[in-house]
Amino acid sequence: MSFLLNNIVELTVTGLVLGAVYGLVALGYTLVYGVLQLINFAHSEVWMYGSFAAVWVTVALGVAPGGPVLTAIGVLLLALLAAMTVSGGIALLLERVAYRRLLRLEAPKLVALISAIGASFFLAELMGLRDRVVDFFGLRDALDPFVRSARDNTRFLNPLETQGLFSIGRYTVSNVDVIIIVGAILMMVGLDQFIRRTRTGRGIRAVAQDSEAAALMGVNRDRVIRATFLVGGVMAGAAALLYLMRFGVTRWDAGFLLGVKAFTAAVLGGIGNVRGALLGGFVLGLAENYGSALVGSQWRDVVAFLLLVVILLFRPTGLLGESLGRARA
Amino acid sequence: MRFLVKTGAPLLAAALALTACGGTTGGEDEGSGGGAAAEAGTCEDVAIGFFGALTGAAANLGINIRNGVQLAVDQHNEANADCQVTLEEYDSAGDPNQATGLATQAIGDDTVLGVVGPAFSGESNSAGPIFAEGGLPTITASATNPALAENDWDTFHRILGNDASQGPAASSYISEVLQSASVFVVDDASEYGAGLAEIVAQDLGDVVVGTDTIQTGQTDFSATITAIRDSGAEAVFFGGYYAEAGLLVQQMRGAGVQATFVVADGVKDPGFIEAAGDAAEGTIITCPCLPPEEQQEFFTAFEDAFGTAPATYSAEAYDAANVFLEGILEGNTDRESLLTWVNEYEGDGITKPIKFDETGEVADISVWAYKVEGGEIVADQEVEVG
Amino acid sequence: MTDKTTPAGATAARKPAAAQKRRGWDRGALGRRLGALPTPVKVLLMALLVLLLYALPLLDLPILSTPDTDFGAVLFTVASYVLVALGLNVVLGYAGLLDLGYVGFYAVGAYTVAVLGSFQAQLSWWMLIPLAVIITTISGVLLGAPTLRVRGDYLAIVTLGFGEIIRLTALNSAWLGEARGITKIPRPPSLELFEIPNLSWDGFTAFVDLDNTTKFLVFGVADQAPYYWLALTLIFLVLGADRMLRLSRIGRAWEATREDEDAAELMGVPTFRFKLLAFATGAFIGGLSGALFASRQGFINPISFPLLLSILFLAAVVVGGAGNRWGVILGAAVVAYLPERFRGFEEWRLLVFGLALLLLANFRPQGLLPPRRTRRVQAVEEELDALEEGTARA
């Protein structure tokens, strides 16, 4: 207990950083759930492909850490753009291949879940077998720096060096900490405004509330669904870059655990609720860190899941409730 | 590169022939399994197996081992046109349940004379009794749980030091060479990591200022790092594999923790450097294996065949496969005689001198400490276990 | 939000059904023909089928058999998946509760046998199985009582958490063996009665292999057939119980709860109690399968119970056709058998398996064998659609 209190600042900041990543990935789950009442199981792979896109941009540019700050920012922006594009693209592809047919057929939600699980296996394994794929096409020599050891961790060469900015108590908050937390909050606010104010956002809310009525009022349901997947994918791409800046490596199967955590965060905050996703992420990140400090890291996931159960017992629709589908002024 | 292999292969063949000669003189009086044994130097329809994960989360380790075996088999086949050995792969995905069926399959396939594996202790526990029943000799190149050798499976062999031999070496390095006054011990809750960390923590005694357990697959270690920083430890011992080790040391350095990072053979892998980058510098890796200077030929051949440097357990797997292959070349083409061959084997592998004691443990284990310098894993010194 | 997890989907897949009608494929034809046969013939056919199922590991039929791993072991795995799928079918197919942590029950059953049979106590096998089942059922009630009040997909994540908590507890508790796992789990008691020779095949010609025999009934290390027989027998028992439950008042209550919980409550069905009962029944069967798994394996560790397994169980039920017991049996067989049969794909097999799931879900959304009720609903809906179109035109 005294350990927790002595290090409360460090545990809080690192917990918030982790929570910010959870929150951004959770946005994808929450949006799709809000609109379609579907658990988009393959969203973790959307994130994973984004993370590889960011890595490959730095490999292609031959980035070395510790260059001038302006170059570093330029590279990071390029990596962000690549991650967002690839993640958005994979999300759209997923909608097309794994969901559209089933949605047209009005198939049971569970079948869509299985379809997504299949897609998730396929995408993850494809990344894990990229060495084999590249060998198959005889492109090993050309693409070797992008392939590396396909089943192992791949490192992201962060062009921006970690630097301490200011100290609170014994902990020095770094530039990366600030970028991640502020970045996540900005993205979330932007998304919230997008959903509240734009035409597409209104469409998303309308379909979430009552898809048939929305269709009758002239909302193009298919377009709205595509937009939802795209937005969720783009957020996952942003999350991928922020994750890499903090944790530095990615792997073909890194998405699965993160996806489970992010989905937990979405439920914690109130699934379908955009603000809830980020709040849920922060709460989960903090709970994991505080829990680890109190009872040891091996119990962190147990603490996280127990917290989820307790919160759902007292607030059955999550911290902020379900809101995407609810009427709002 | 091609040139090297072409010139390297006959050299290796010569080396094999030499050891083979040594084998015959020593093995003349055995004669028991001789009934089915073929003429030395020729064989037909024989195979050795690889048993471990080629898919799933532990596939990276499994592929390292498979590649080591593959290289040995390829070199053998190139050198011995009259004795072609095939490699049977048993992909258990590291899952003890799948291991049961695969082991049963392996003992049912009469052409399979020996198996390199099972890769992990968990699947060894499932498959071990089945191999013992089928009389199929196994040499594991990676499962390090000491209890495996205490099971009365007469087919079990292990070509590397178990946790009980590595643990004391790591703790002796920490207390004698580093002379750290305070050590923080972390493990990854895996059978290998937890077993090792437990022994190290016990050996170090009062010097241990804190312990924590992470989970395999975990990527955020901030709480653990806070605990390390809070304890003010001079050294951190991590029991686990290179994937988590790379992330942990990288995040440690990122958070400004400068304690010496000490790990064991599960981290002796290019993947560690790949994941950790500069943060890996100065890491101490203990390993019950000889320094790689003596393995130069193996290194080149491996890189040429697979495009990557040999990784964790590749060299051990290569040695294990060669024990079988030499035996087969000697005419031990049934399981019984090959098992006798393995039990009585004495020779120099590239990782260590190989000789198995009656429980199947490799008899002579010298533990070396390696250090990460300039992005390479280089030999530091041999560790005396006092 | 109402409970949208209706598995078999009242509104499922109109188009394929219509397409089938166009092609003139009458799926009931075979069933009607079989039904028209005289009773003794039916009984004989059933008996032959059952005999064939029992004989499978001995016959080792080409094409059906798995070339790269032991067929008996695969059959056992398939049988244990079938048991689990039957249990999950009660929870998901009958009561409509999405459970993503079903592996938790499987693990509780297995660990009960391992801990009380080898690690902490040495009870006899005959004691262990009932104990495992009872403890798993209790754990099901303990988990269900607080969480079943949570509706729909929230239950999914709570149960997922439960499965992980069980695994992590086993991994991190010295009392449960940690990562090292538990060895020397008692096997079922053996009876050595007689030997049965196995068949061996050369291409498509069969030989009776007198050297390769299965001892009836010895639960040994290498021969997997007796374990498969035991599992198969349990499946038949569970199937019988399943049929009785389904046709009883309880089965109807589950169906009502699944279709519309509020309406069911209004009609006087105590939905919570019935959901809890479904959960406990599912846990019972899951625990039984886990206990069987542990005593076949002789060794368990936490690696045997990953989250992924819950997802495979779920896939088995949905792919087969949730709500139809024959469907989920088929689904379980597909999910457990295909990856083992097609080991020839080597490193690609999980990729291919993912693709297969994707295709199955998209082109057979109602499941391989949809429940009869779904088919009835489909027919009614088509009729309604036709009527609507008719009035619109008129």
Can you tell me about this structure?
The complex is a heterotrimer of chains A (329), B (386) and C (394). The longest helix of chain A is centred in the first third of the chain and has 36 residues, at 69-104. In chain A, helix 6 packs antiparallel against helix 7 and helix 12 crosses helix 13. By secondary structure, chain A is mostly helical. In chain A, 74% of the residues lie in helices and 4% in strands. Chain B is an alpha/beta fold. Chain B has two domains: 2-160 and 291-354, Response regulator (Rossmann fold, 3-Layer(aba) Sandwich), CATH 3.40.50; 163-287 and 367-383, Rossmann fold (3-Layer(aba) Sandwich). Chain B is 44% helix and 19% strand. Chain B has helices at residues 2-27, 59-79, 96-108, 121-134, 163-178, 191-204, 222-231, 242-254, 270-276, 296-306, 314-329, 335-343, and strands at residues 43-52, 83-91, 112-116, 138-140, 156-158, 183-187, 208-213, 235-239, 260-263, 284-287, 347-348, 353-354, 367-373, 376-383. Chain B is elongated. The model of chain B is unreliable at 1-37 (pLDDT under 50). In chain C, strands 1-2 form a two-stranded antiparallel ribbon. In chain C, helix 6 (125-147) runs antiparallel to helix 11 (271-297). The longest helix of chain C has 27 residues, at 271-297. Chain C is globular. Residues 1-25 of chain C have low confidence and may be disordered. Chains in contact: A-B, A-C, B-C. The interface between A and B is large, with 42 and 38 residues.
Question: How are the elements arranged and paired?
Answer:
The complex is a heterotrimer of chains A (329), B (386) and C (394).
Chain A lengths: L1 H5 L1 H29 L6 H19 L7 H36 L4 H20 L1 H7 L3 H8 L6 E2 L8 E5 L2 E4 H23 L1 H11 L1 H6 L4 H27 L1 E2 L3 H16 L4 H22 L4 H15 L15
Antiparallel strand pairs in A: 1-4, 2-3
Helix pairs in contact in A: 2-8, 2-11, 2-12, 2-13, 3-4, 3-5, 3-11, 3-12, 4-5, 4-11, 6-7, 8-9, 8-11, 9-11, 12-13, 13-14
Chain B lengths: L1 H26 L15 E10 L6 H21 L3 E9 L4 H13 L3 E5 L4 H14 L3 E3 L15 E3 L4 H16 L4 E5 L3 H14 L3 E6 L8 H10 L3 E5 L2 H13 L5 E4 L6 H7 L7 E4 L8 H11 L7 H16 L5 H9 L3 E2 L4 E2 L12 E7 L2 E8 L3
Parallel strand pairs in B: 1-2, 1-3, 3-4, 4-5, 6-7, 6-8, 8-9, 9-10
Antiparallel strand pairs in B: 10-13, 11-12, 13-14
Helix pairs in contact in B: 1-2, 1-10, 2-11, 3-4, 5-6, 8-9
Chain C lengths: L13 H10 L5 H8 L2 H21 L11 H24 L8 H17 L5 H23 L5 H20 L21 E9 L2 E12 L8 H23 L1 H11 L1 H6 L4 H27 L9 H14 L4 H17 L7 H15 L8 H22 L1
Helix pairs in contact in C: 3-8, 4-8, 4-11, 4-12, 4-13, 5-6, 5-7, 5-11, 6-11, 9-11, 12-13
